[in-house]
Amino acid sequence: MTDNVSALQALPPGSTIGILGGGQLARMLAVAAARLGLYTHIYSDDSGPAFDVAPRASKGDYRDRAALAAFAGAVDVVTFEFENVPVEVAEQLQALVPVRPGAKALAVAQDRLAEKTFLSELALPLAPFAAITRAADIAAAMAEINGPAILKTRRLGYDGKGQAAVSPADDYGRAFSSVGEAPSVLEQRLRFEFEFSVLAVRGCDGEIGFYDSPVNSHAEGILRLSKVPSPLTEAEQMSARAITARIADALDYVGVLAVELFYLGAGAETPLIVNEIAPRVHNSGHWTVDACAISQFENHIRAVAGWPLGSTDRHSDAEMVNLIGADADDWVQLAAEPGVCLHLYGKRHVRPGRKMGHMTRLAPHRR
Amino acid sequence: MTDNVSALQALPPGSTIGILGGGQLARMLAVAAARLGLYTHIYSDDSGPAFDVAPRASKGDYRDRAALAAFAGAVDVVTFEFENVPVEVAEQLQALVPVRPGAKALAVAQDRLAEKTFLSELALPLAPFAAITRAADIAAAMAEINGPAILKTRRLGYDGKGQAAVSPADDYGRAFSSVGEAPSVLEQRLRFEFEFSVLAVRGCDGEIGFYDSPVNSHAEGILRLSKVPSPLTEAEQMSARAITARIADALDYVGVLAVELFYLGAGAETPLIVNEIAPRVHNSGHWTVDACAISQFENHIRAVAGWPLGSTDRHSDAEMVNLIGADADDWVQLAAEPGVCLHLYGKRHVRPGRKMGHMTRLAPHRR
Question: Cβ contact (<8 Å) for B27 and A35?
């Protein structure tokens, strides 16, 4: 089958899933694992909200090979909540215990240039892009792109950080400074109608399931809202799923994979453009906890534990709104709002831009 | 308002709910609290499945007053997962910290005679009953009841334990021996069409909400299956809710209260008969986790934390089946069944009759 443990060897209840990272995604993964009678062991360089719900948690540096080896010895499989796990860590661990998804998915997803190259080798629809290592590269690339563009650092960009808009008349040196002169990718800035994501889950045996695609909106580079159903037609949704399946198969992927796409409009030559991939459970799938029998978190756990995948059907329409920074101060009003499922992550300190929780508004499924 | 903390003083996220008992009900309460950003602290005389998901857990004897005082000092409110918490424990704790529901609900629910007396003082419909302290009492009571009866110990009966059927021709001495000659209640054995429960939640301000009533079936004294919708008419369900509201108001109750009733048939003189009450989240309400936006566990936590109650609406029809003893060995088949939400409690040892998990089958809501 697709990795070093047969798909028939599902980890029995009582097994332990190791999770790298201790934030809210790890927290929701740990709760989902508990529901199936599976234990979790968190490994993170900082104690976070997952530490409060997991049976075991280790605080350790990601470069501490001895601590990582002990962690690998205490768990039956390793997964992660964020794509910036150092690839060497994944490689060290996967010599000791299955790591799902594997080091290849991490290597591709944590370097924007590797990701664009991988996707273009699969002949998937992308915005034109160029690698940037110095300011002069921007001028050459802008001549090709011939219009507005966006400069993004190759590594460690998230929630809009490490990005700068670039227009033909701009000072390219200043643009490059604004991203710290880090190795970057310049890509054409597209006019799109909306952004959406495909939330797929792929099992150890290659079986793949898809949640209904949410349409997403951002504010200040941070996801603000995800909504199902989206305005996509059935055919458009099928095309997006086919793209996602190609990516998942090429990565021999196990777990939940999120692919963010732009919808350029039914009249566009290429209506769907891949923006980026996230090799993990995804913020735009949080509504699945409240609107589906089996959430993205449980399906990720099922996949990495070698279990049969659960249904991805939803029973309700849903709108997920992130609670960022002081938004969560309104918890008592939000808790009183009919039809709202409130989720707070138990973070001890509020900071501007910090994801403190989310809420899901449910409505009966329009069929 | 109804207890010593104003309803306006909802405990903010980051507060700690103390839970007496460490079984699966406490486990599901702890997960529900985490979802709201509330911490939990389990206190139990034996480590159980709740210990794996709660941020803090203390193993201690229920008679250890010093340990209980330390527990009270570490939490903002205390609740419990089982009605056999010694009343003295609840009284000791409520001198230090709010206990919800309070000692009165415990005192009534843990002594079958006190419960029947309390319910009959409220003029609620009950099967005829009599207190039994010696075998001779049975003869006198049987003469009154004039038909089949059931003998139940006053204390510590659950899942069919401490019960014996008694018929007019029986050897009453032997029947009394079979329940250990413990102080008991003899009650008329009714012919009923089905058993159902009312799952209510009452807030600190007296607000009350009801989940749709499930119809329940038992095997060998243990709940096997709960299903919504039940065959009850709207009017019958309203009568059952009115009974439950009287009980909850009389107990100045805070939290989820389950009332089990018998349905004797539309043609019966008294179609609804109260069987017993459970001052806690209830096995017949487990389907609310999968079929409602806000589960009984979250609503119990909301109530005891002084929060606004959440919606009790359900989005799906549901059938909950308990997985007892070796039933849970079929986890891989159950996990693969479409439309099934599988819940395993993480118990390390399987024993016959032990509740190892449950599953909920969902179907679209028939309106």
Answer: no
- Secondary structure (3-state) at B273: strand
Tokens of B57: 């857990």
Global pTM reads 0.95
CATH class of B128-188: alpha beta
- Residue of chain B whose Cα is closest to the Cα of A13: B346
CATH class label, A16-109: alpha beta
Q: Which run of H or of E encompasses A173? A: helix A172-178
- CA-based nearest residue to A149, from A259, A159, A137: A137
- C-alpha distances in Å from residue A202, one per residue of A250, B202, B340: 12, 43, 19
* Contact criterion met (CB < 8 Å) for A308 and B36: no
Residue B257 CB contacts under 8 Å (≥ 6 apart), including other chains:
B101, B105, B199, B200, B201, B202, B244, B247, B248, B251, B277, B278, B279
- In A, minimum Cα distance to B306 occurs at A332
Whether A16-109 shares its CATH topology with A128-188 is answered no
For chain B, the domains span: 16-109, 128-188, 194-364
Mark yes or no for CB contact B52/A39 under 8 Å. Answer: yes
Residue to test with chain A: of B8, B35, B297, most A Cβ within 10 A: B35
**What is the full per-residue pLDDT of chain B (367 aa) written as tens digits?**
344 444 458 999 999 999 999 999 999 999 999 999 999 999 999 999 999 999 999 999 999 999 999 999 999 999 999 998 999 999 999 999 999 999 999 999 999 999 999 999 999 999 999 999 999 999 999 999 989 999 999 998 666 678 999 999 899 999 999 999 999 999 999 999 999 999 999 999 999 999 999 999 999 889 999 999 999 999 999 999 999 999 999 999 999 999 999 999 999 999 999 999 999 999 999 999 999 999 999 999 999 999 999 999 999 999 999 999 999 999 999 999 998 999 999 998 999 999 999 999 999 988 6
Domain B194-364: which CATH number of 3.30.930.10, 1.10.10.60, 3.30.750.24, 3.30.470.20: 3.30.470.20
CB contact under 8 A, A331 and B53: no
Chain A contact probe: residue of B6, B42, B52, B295 with most A CBs at under 10 A: B52
What ipTM goes with this model?
0.94
- Searching chain B, which residue's CA lies closest to the CA of residue A313? B339
Collect all residues of chain B within an 8 Å Cβ-Cβ radius of residue A315.
315-316, 362, 364
**Chains A, B: CB contacts under 8 A, how many?**
112
Q: Which two tokens stand for residue B284?
A: 């017949």
Of all helices (H) and strands (E), which one includes residue B194?
strand B194-202
